[in-house]
Design a protein that fits this description.
The chain is an alpha/beta fold. Helix content is 28%, strand content 31%. The protein has a 7-stranded mixed sheet with strand order 8-7-6-9-10-12-11, with helices on both faces. The protein is globular, with a radius of gyration of 18 Å.
């Protein structure tokens, strides 16, 4: 009988992936980190039994988390990534020639170690522009003031150490860490999963009240619950759908366009088209 990994997002409904063997297992002070070799998706990392990424579909999440905000900013030089210990978001951020310094604040060293060991192509950890800090992202933003051009909140699901990444107090602190033309993005779960709705609304309402421009966009990640995934973006000055942004995307990504598998200008614009049920979810109490 084949071994299977199952992640249930509602009662007995969820995801099943065939497993060849377990490659990594560690119970840390924060969570349980595991890596599996699968029969279809390459190596798969989970945290507390929830999928974080697979080698074969990680590019969707990481390209959207990085390029949507960085191309909204006129010239991103300093970037803060909260979470993102697998290194994929940092890899995409570092493709931008204007970026000079990236701080990646990951609470759990085991996530970075597991990724380096079993998903070495995902991260770009040897890049001298990348500075990995093993700290709590919630308290890290207590210190810096107006330091970053872009903040990317690449946390896990709203349970355990990541639950506060969905609260207003955290976004108030992030706002103060951004420069006058700063941009922020956060992953905000699947609109198809009802018990995530409060978390999605919490983030969207927080950034709506703090930033002049705040939007939700969607992407499609096969191994995440239901496949549909949302991300929230906020900007102090520049609308990600402005003609200015859309006109320069192709020029700005010209040096690395051949490395992209998902993101492009058409995807950038289309991602903000929300289905009716998502709009209704955002407006409901």
């Amino acid at each position: 009988m084949p071994i299977q990994y199952n992640e249930f997002y509602n009662e007995q409904t969820g995801l099943t992936v065939g497993i060849k063997k377990q490659l990594f297992h560690e119970v840390t002070p924060y969570q349980t980190v595991e890596v599996f070799e699968t029969d279809t998706w390459g190596n798969l990392m989970t945290i507390d039994g929830m999928v974080m990424l697979s080698e074969k579909d990680e590019f969707v999440y990481h390209e959207m988390m990085a390029h949507m905000p960085l191309l909204t900013h006129p010239k991103p030089e300093t970037v803060l990534i909260i979470g993102g210990g697998d290194g994929g978001t940092a890899r995409e951020v570092l493709k931008h020639p204007s970026v000079k310094h990236v701080d990646m604040v990951e609470i759990d060293e085991a996530v970075v170690r597991a990724s380096k060991l079993h998903m070495p192509a995902v991260g770009d950890f040897d890049n001298p522009k990348l500075h990995v800090k093993y700290e709590n992202g919630l308290t890290f933003v207590d210190g810096p003031r107006e330091v970053y051009d872009v903040i990317i909140i690449d946390g896990s699901d709203p349970v355990g150490p990541a639950v506060d990444l969905f609260k207003r107090d955290f976004y108030e602190k992030c706002h103060t860490c951004l420069k006058a033309d700063g941009v922020l993005v956060s992953q905000t779960e699947s609109p198809f999963v009802e018990h995530y709705h409060d978390s999605i609304r919490s983030v969207q309402r927080a950034i709506d009240s703090l930033f002049p421009i705040a939007k939700l966009f969607l992407t499609w990640i096969p191994l995440y619950p239901t496949g549909m995934w949302s991300m929230s973006i906020a900007s102090k000055q520049r609308d990600p759908l402005s003609a200015e942004v859309l006109e320069i995307i192709d020029t700005r990504i010209a040096t690395f366009a051949d490395t992209l598998k998902y993101y492009n200008k058409d995807v950038h614009a289309a991602a903000y088209a929300l289905p009716g049920f998502v709009k209704q979810m955002l407006e409901s109490e």
